[in-house]
Specification:
single chain, mainly alpha, 18 helices, globular
């Protein structure tokens, strides 16, 4: 037999493909315990909301907020180990991103166009002003340049996501990132719980409150938690404004990349480029696509209710996961200057955002 007759070429879709599928399945199965835990907390939150409705006639504290509080309570007494961690992380990130994408089916592009160029320009100006103010505050408090940039981007754009995206561009190390995001989770929950107090204090309409939430709350899921209990109008405008704000991450990262050498931010191989998947997250693309399809009448009306219910449940499950990720004891370990920088920056952002609402006369 000739040597060439003995040659065997493994099919491209042979054992290698099956092995990868099996590996993916194993990883997915490993998520089940954590997802089940988040679902259980979400179920309790929904039950407590129904009890509220029966006793008071109205849920003064929605299941979204209850799920966060229950998650924080559980984490205060028990820290989930590796057995639960994968599913909790999956619920807090992937399930929530799916929920945000599905939310696009409830929003028409007409709403975005109808908001007018003034609001879109105002969002960009607000982000820019908040970036400058937050950076100046951090530097005035004596924080390092990289940490100041991370805090400014996290406060002005989208919290931990912005910090994680900007860190490799400016060559920030683990200590820089850790010190920047340590207080974000807890402060984000405080903002979600406290922001509705501005409605009576400032006599805000549902639209005005939605814009305020979209401009000030750190993350998309937290915007949902802060606005859904108020009204659908607040949730729609809050989500719209927040997504436009998130899209500002791309230009900011590009600008930092161009100015990296001038700002002395290059740190050998630590600084690197960031791909488009980070600049424009997939769920924002999906959100805009679904909103476009809804505007064109290509989303069947019969699907809107199931999509809305699915979105609601996925969001509540994600809120439980986010609560499980909040360790209230971390406050005692956060540096005083970092805490002061984040808190003062947030106060300035709220003031700038409220000013924009009144300048544009948003009703």
């Amino acid at each position: 037999m000739k040597d060439e007759d003995k040659t065997f070429v493994k099919p491209a879709d042979g054992p290698g493909w099956r092995a990868r599928c099996w590996s993916a399945l194993v990883r997915l199965i490993a998520f089940i315990p954590g997802i089940a835990l988040c679902c259980a907390i979400a179920g309790v939150a929904m039950l407590l909301q129904r009890l509220e409705e029966q006793a008071l006639g109205h849920p003064y504290v929605e299941a979204l907020v209850i799920a966060i509080l229950l998650g924080i309570m559980v984490r205060s007494f028990w820290q989930p180990g590796a057995f639960w961690g994968g599913g909790i992380e999956f619920s807090a990130k992937m399930l929530l991103e799916i929920a945000v994408m599905l939310l696009g089916a409830a929003i028409s592009i007409g709403v975005i166009i109808g908001s007018g160029p003034a609001l879109l320009a105002g969002i960009a100006i607000t982000v820019a002003a908040a970036l400058v103010a937050s950076y100046a505050i951090s530097r005035a408090l004596g924080l390092p340049q990289r940490v100041s940039i991370l805090i400014a981007c996290g406060n002005s754009i989208c919290g931990n996501s912005a910090i994680a995206a900007v860190a490799p561009v400016i060559g920030a190390d683990g200590d820089d990132v850790a010190s920047s995001i340590a207080f974000t989770a807890i402060l984000g929950v405080i903002v979600v719980l406290g922001l509705p107090l501005f409605i009576p204090l400032l006599q805000l309409s549902e639209t005005q409150y939605g814009v305020l939430a979209g401009l000030t709350v750190y993350a998309v899921p937290q915007v949902l938690a802060a606005t859904v209990p108020i009204s659908a109008v607040s949730a729609q405008f809050g989500t719209l404004v927040k997504l436009v704000r998130v899209l500002m991450l791309g230009p900011v990262i590009i600008l930092l990349s161009l100015l990296r050498s001038k700002l002395n931010l290059s740190r050998g191989s630590a600084a690197r480029r960031v791909g488009w998947r980070v600049l424009i997250p997939w769920f924002i693309t999906g959100f805009l696509l679904l909103a476009t399809l809804r505007s064109l009448g290509l989303v069947p009306i019969v699907l809107l209710t199931p999509i809305a219910i699915t979105t609601k449940w996925l969001t509540i499950i994600s809120m439980a996961a986010l609560g499980l990720g909040v360790d209230v004891r971390i406050v005692s370990r956060v540096g005083g200057r970092v805490t002061a920088a984040v808190v003062v920056s947030l106060i300035v952002l709220i003031a700038i955002s409220n000013g924009l609402i009144w300048i544009l006369r948003i009703a």
